[in-house]
Amino acid sequence: MKRVTNCSAALALFLFSLSSAATDGPNGRAAAALYKKYCAECHHADRLGAMGPALLPQNLKRLKKGDAFDVIANGSPATQMPAFRDRLGETEIRSLVNYIYTPLKQMPEWGMKQMAATHIVHHDVELLPDKPVFSADLQNLFIVVELGDHHATLLDGDTFTPIHRFPTRVALHGGPKYSNNGRYVFFASRDGWISKFDIYNLKYVAEIRAGINTRNVAVTPDGHYVMVANYLPHTLTLLDGRDLSPIEVIPVTDANGRSSRVSAVYTAEPRGSFIAALKDIAEVWEIGYSGTDCSSHPGRGAASDPSLPRRKGCFPVRRIHLDDYLDDFFLNQEYSLIIGTSREGSSQVVDLDKGKVVHKLDLTGMPHLGSGITWQYQGLTVLATPNIKEGVVSVIDMTTWKTIKRIETLGPGFFMRSHENTPYAWVDVFFGPDKDAMQVIDKRTLRIVKTLRPEPGKTSAHVEFTKDGAYALVSIWDMDGAVIVYDARTLKEIKRIPMRKPSGKYNVSNKLKRSRGTSH
Ligand code: DHE
To answer: Rounded to 5 degrees, what are φ and ψ at 382?
Structure first.
């Protein structure tokens, strides 16, 4: 079966209607020109978000105008947002601030109808063979996302040779998600495209644009359901995992009708639910996908019978009220706790079963909890997280929730990774003059034992291990970049595979088994 629906006409019309909605008057026109020159490339001509987030009043509710001025002038840590103070004067920055806080004349709609118009079914999965067209250990494959030219590479994790390289949507972000024991992988792009790729047949199965400005995607292990977190509109989108057809758009609002961006959504397999963190409402949502309470309804019953159609209306939202927003968070290995931080600096531990905040944390700076990992240290389970603002890795005892060690690094880091079979944890130094450094921490002593410079002068980031933890793969974030394979025991380089700005790499087994050393 091949059904390709052309959505470009509808999209063009929709974008045209917005582009005529620029701020009126000479000042407004000057600001619009500045926006076009300096901001449109990353934030979209109509402020709907692209590589950078949407810049609309409803998405800037938590940012005061003074802080927006500061971000434009000085840039924003842990993002690609540069400082404009050398290029723009105070008046120009102020006019840009006013411009981005001006409502669009017509807010874009992205509901079931608009989504359905973008839906593409490339292949009927039922007709594709359930056998790979190549030979390799299927659990030791990696998908490497190459941001440089919007491609992905399927890499053999035993021989470190590429099996297949294929184009992706523009600006993928977040980890691709595997289902069906690693047969399928799901990608999300910042402009809302969700793509399902059949690894066995090396073919795209289906695609849909599930949002205008999207954060990430979560998939149930059986591949039945896909949940998409959006910044614009303020929705979660539930898709049928078989062909990505839309089931339901869930508006994200609190009891008073205040809407919110969604920070991220994750599949909590042990709970049979999706967990969504919200950015503008102090709530976390749990949305069940496999309960029996609703089994007579096809929406839920479909989880146990793949032949049944998926229907909307049977995915109840459980709201957990928090003391503060969740900008960044980490789920413990059992998926019973959320450890979260807000941009303003407060950190909280939420018990998902009790449905309330049970601890506060003494974390400073801006810990990147999403990149946190856990291990056993002197009989304790510890959580370690890099920090986006400070050159420090915080190690936290997960019983007392005290920080037991702050490990000084060469600069703020983005990603931290390890594996059950290695004594080391690797952390990058993403920001600053030492961005080419990769620091190796001994998990037994909590000390840095080695600083590698995989490619002097070029940013090295994001480590992922092979299935057995014997090798660590490091990205060189450059158009003329590479994935470099290290022996995880000797810390010596084994192989260099040329790639175009490889952002992240994702090992099938480590993701499906929910290794303690990586994200899930
Ligand atoms: Fe990411 C994952 C949020 C900027 C590369 N990033 C994630 C996830 C979240 C997140 C919530 C987890 C989603 C998932 O895997 O399902 N990222 C944010 C931000 O809020 C932030 C700071 C600002 C923004 O622009 O959205 C941000 N991220 C970046 C970048 O600038 C990076 C370095 C380059 C890029 O691609 O834009 C970047 N983020 C990544 C990568 C992952 C990621 C490679 C997956 C890591 C993994 O191993 O799972």
So the answer is: -115, 150
- Round to whole Å and give the CA distance between 495 and 513: 26
Cα–Cα distance, 365 to 332 (Å, whole number): 21
> Contact, 61 vs 100, CB < 8 A?
no
Share above pLDDT 70 across residues of the chain, in percent, rounded to a whole number: 91
Residue 134's pLDDT is 98
- pLDDT per residue as tens digits for the range 183-207: 999 999 999 999 999 999 999 999 9
φ and ψ at residue 65, rounded to 5 degrees = -60, -35
Domain boundaries, the chain: 21-100, 109-303
The tokens for 495 are 């192989």
Question: Which pLDDT band holds residue 311 (cuts at 50, 70, 90)?
Answer: low
CA 492, chain centre distance (Å): 30
Could you give the CA distance from residue 33 to residue 13 in angstroms, rounded to a whole number? Answer: 22
Q: Is the CB of 503 under 6 A from ligand 1?
A: yes
On the question of a common fold for 21-100 and 109-303, the answer reads no
Q: Model confidence over 429-476: pLDDT tens digits? A: 998 999 999 999 999 999 999 999 999 999 999 999 999 999 999 999
Which amino acid does the sequence have at 358?
A: V
Residue with tokens 């801006």: 366
The domain defined by 109-303 carries CATH number 2.140.10.20: yes
Task: Considering the domain delimited by 21-100, tell me its CATH architecture.
Answer: Orthogonal Bundle (1.10)
pLDDT, residue 181, reads: 98
Please choose, from the candidates 420, 367, 376, the residue with its C-alpha nearest in 3D space to the C-alpha of residue 399: 376
Whose CA is closest to 178, among 131, 137, 207, 141?
141
- Indicate which residue's Cα is closest to atom 43 of ligand 1: 174
pLDDT at 5 over 50: no
Output the CA 174–ligand 1 centroid distance in Å: 5
Is 78 a pocket residue for ligand 1 (Cβ < 6 Å)? yes
- Among 173, 227, 280, 435, say which to mutate for ligand 1: greatest number of ligand atoms within 8 Å of CB: 173
Contact between residue 192 and residue 172 where contact means Cβ atoms under 8 Å apart: no
Task: Please indicate whether residue 475, judged by its CB atom, sits closer than 6 Å to ligand 1.
Answer: no
Give the Cβ contact number of residue 452 at 10 Å.
Answer: 19
Whether the bond into 233 is cis, omega within 30 of 0:
yes
Any atom of ligand 1 within 6 Å of the Cβ of 414: yes
